[in-house]
Fold these 3 entries.
Entry 1:
Amino acid sequence: MNILSKGDLKVLLGKGNEACVSVSIYMATQRSGSGVQQNPIRLRNLLRDAEERLVAHGLRRTEAKRLLAPAARLPEDDLFWRHQSEGLAIFVSQEVFQAYHVPLDFKETVVVANRFHIKPLLPIFSGDGSFYILALSQNKIRLLQCSHYAAREVDLAGIAPLNLAETISHHETQRQESHHRGGSGSGRESTVFHGQNIGDEAKNNISRYFQQVNNGVHHQILKEENAPLILAGVDFLHPIYKTVNTYPHLFDKGINGNPEDLSAEELHKQAWEIIKPFFEKSHLEAVAEYNQQAGGGHTSNNIREIVPKAYQGGIKLLFVALGIQEWGTFDLKSNTIDLHEKAQPCDDDLLDFAAAYTIIHRGTVYAVKPEDVPGGLTVAAVFHREDL
C-alpha cells in the first residue's frame, strides 16, 4: 500500500459530489497480539454504521451496499491485513475507493458528507510532527513515514534499488555492454563496504547506489513534501548520501550506526529525539508570529474569513482544534458561508476544509488541542502579506 501524499489529499478533496455520499472511515489497528484478529471485525462494524448513515441520508439500502462493496471486501482480504500501521483510513464514493495504512492512532470515526473528512489525517501533513527516516545500508534501504507517535515502512519496490548488489549488477551489465561495443571498462568492482577506509571504486559504487535511491525517494515519493528527512546509517555513509541528495529538507543531523537490526519503532524513537527540538521551535515561532501580527489585520479567528482565504491560498499559518467540527457549507462562487450547530446533509467540517486547502497551497497547519489554539477559539490564521 502506497504512502499517503499531498497528491492523494488533492484527489480526495476534489471528489465531493452533489449526491453527498462521500464516506470516510477511520479506525485504530492492532499490529500484534490477540487484537490483530479483531481488526476485520471492527471494520465490519464500522461499515454497518456507514450503511445506516447512508440510508439515513436518503440512499436505498441496495444503493448503500453497492457503494460500500469495495470496502466490504477488505475484512476477508488476508493480504490487506498483513501490512498494518497504527491506523486505517478508508474513503469511498461513487468515484473513489482508497484505503491507507498510516502511523496515526485514530479514534473510530464514520463520516458521510459532501466531501471526504480528512482532519484526522492532519498530523501526517502538519508542521509539528511529520517527518521521514531513510535507513541506509548495503543490504537494505528502508523509508519510514513518521508522525509524532509512530512510523510505518513505505514500500520501495520498483521505486529505488533495495540493496547495493542490485546497483552493482546493473552497472556491471552496462560496463560489459560498453566493453563489447568497444568501450574500455573491464574488471569487477567491489560490492562490499565496511568502514571509512574504503577505496575509490567502492565509494563510486555507493554513490551510484545512493543516486538511484535519491531519484526514487525524492522524485517519486517525496516530490510534494516539505517534511524533514533524517538519515540513518553508519557514519561514513552520511556525507556520501548528502553529495547526491536533491531533497531540500534533508535534516543535517542523523542517526549513526547500522540500521539493519533496528525495528521501525527503534528508529522512530531515536529520530524523534533528534527532530523534537526542531518541531518545538517551529511551533513556538508560529505562535509568536501570530501574537505579533494579531490586531494588525494580518490574522484572524473568524472562520467566515479564514475558509475563503484558505481556498484561495492566502494562509501562511493555520491552527485548528483537533476533535472539534464546525459544520456548514461554503459557496465557492459567492465566497459565502452558512454555519450550522449540527451537521446537515451535504455539510462540510469547515475546519477540515480550511486545513486541507492550506496544506495544498503549501501553508503550514498546526493541529492542536482546543486550548492551544491562539486567540482561544477553534481556529486561528496568519495571512500571507501579499494577500492583504
Entry 2:
Amino acid sequence: MREILTYGKREFIVEIQFNKRKSFSITVYHDLRIVAKAPLGSSIKDIRKGLNKRASWISKQIDYFDQFQPLPPERKYISGETHYYLGRQYRLIINRGKTQRVKLIGGFFTMELPNPSDREKAKKIMQDWYSSHAKELLTKHLKRLLPEFTRLGVLEPEIRFRRMKKRWGSCSQKGIIILNTELVKVPIHCIDYVIIHELCHLKYLKHNKEFYHLMRKILPDWEKRKERLEKAVL
C-alpha cells in the first residue's frame, strides 16, 4: 500500500506496511525510499495523521540523503575494482588457482578461484570473508564498550550478526541486538557509534530525550560519526 504525503509544494510517496507492532514508525532510507510501519488494524486516518506529524522530519531526511545520490553501483567482483575494509579501499585481484579463498595482503584483496570469471563465486567468497571478520571484530568492540552500560544496570545482550541492506543495527524489545556484518567496511569510530547506539536502546528503547542524553554523555561527537557513516561507500 502506498500513500502520497504532501508537505508544502513537495510530495512524497510513502510505502505503508502493516505489522504486529504497538506503535507507528517511519524510516527514510539511503535510496530515498520512505517506509511507514503501522500496527495491524490501523485506519488510513490515523496513518495520515502520523505522516503529517512527521512531515517536516521526513522532508529534512530526504534532503540529507539526497546529497549522497546517486548511490554507487553494485560491485561486479572482477579484478581491478575496489572493496572497503575499515574505511580504506583495497583493490581486488583474482587469480586462477585450485583453492577458493581471499586474503587481504598489503593494499590488495587477493583471491584464488578455479574459474576467475565466476562472479557469483567471487561474490560469495568476499561476503564470507567479510562476515567472518565482522563477527570477530564487532564482538571485540562490543566487549570493550559494554562495561560502560553494565554500570548503568544494563544486562549483557544477546548479539546476532546479519548482512543487511538497509540498517546498520537494531535492538528488539527483548533486548536482542543485531549488527550488520557490512560494518566491517566502515571506519572504527563509525563501528563504535553503531554499537553504542544499539546499547543505548537497551536502556531506552525509543529515540526519546533520555536516549539522546545518554548518547551525548557516552559519545559526545556521535552526530559527526553518524554523518561519516551515512557517507560510507560500500
Entry 3:
Amino acid sequence: MIACTDQIGSSIILEKIPKRIISLVPSQTELLHDLGLGDRVIGITKFCVHPTEWHRSKQRIGGTKDVDIEKVTQLMPDLIIGNKEENTKKDIQQLQKIAPTWVSDIHTLSDSIEMIAQISELCQKQAIGKQVNAKIVHNFEQLQPSQGSEKVIYLIWKKPYMGVGTSTFIDDMLTNQLGFINALGDQERYPVVDLKKAYDIDWVLLSSEPYPFKEKHFAEVRAVFPNAKIRLVDGEYFTWYGSRLIETPLYFKKLLNEMDM
C-alpha cells in the first residue's frame, strides 16, 4: 500500500503501484516521462505537447479545463494527477470518484520540489525523482539573480491585458529567482492591467503562453507602456514546474545576459 497527502490536503491511498496513470497537466506530464513512466501513462490532455512522441501517440482526454470524464472512466485509470489551478474543482471532484486523484498546488520553487518528490514516491520512482530534484536545486544555486531594482510587468493575455501578481509560480520566478521587482506584486493572481495608470517600469515581458505574444504586438504594447523596454520570453520556463525546471536556470541566465542586467 502507498499512502500520502497531496498538496491540497487530500489523502491518497494506492493498493499497489499505479500502472494506468492519467495526467491532466502539461508540465507534470513531462515529469512523468522523465521519471521513466512511458508504459504506465495512458492518458494526457491536448495541451500536453512535451514530449512530442506522447503528444502524437497517447490517448487525449480533453483539455485542462474541460476533461472528458466519460473518456477517463473508459480508460480505467488507477491514478489521476492534476493541479488545483490548471484543472477545475468540478472536474477534480468527479475524477476523485473514478480513481485516486493526486492534486498539486504550486506557488514556489519549493512547492515544485515537493511535488516531484511526492509523485515520484506515488509511482515508486524515488531514485529518479531524487536525481531530478538534485539537478534542479543545483542549477538554481548556480543562477545569479539581478542585483538591480528593475521593475517588470509580465503579460500573459491581451484584450484585456492581463499580468501576473503575487501568490503565483511566475511571481516566484520573477522575484525570488531572477531578482526583479514585480510591478503588479501588490495584486493577487492574474490582474487586468489598468490602462489608465502610468506604470513606472523598466521592462514588459511578453509571454509565449497562454497568449502567443509575438513581435507584431510590440507597437501596441509600447503605446500602453511608452517608457519600458519590451522582451519576448518563453512562457514554458516561467510556468512549467516539473522536470523542465532542470533547464530553466540556463534560460534565465541567458535572458539576464541579453537584457544586460
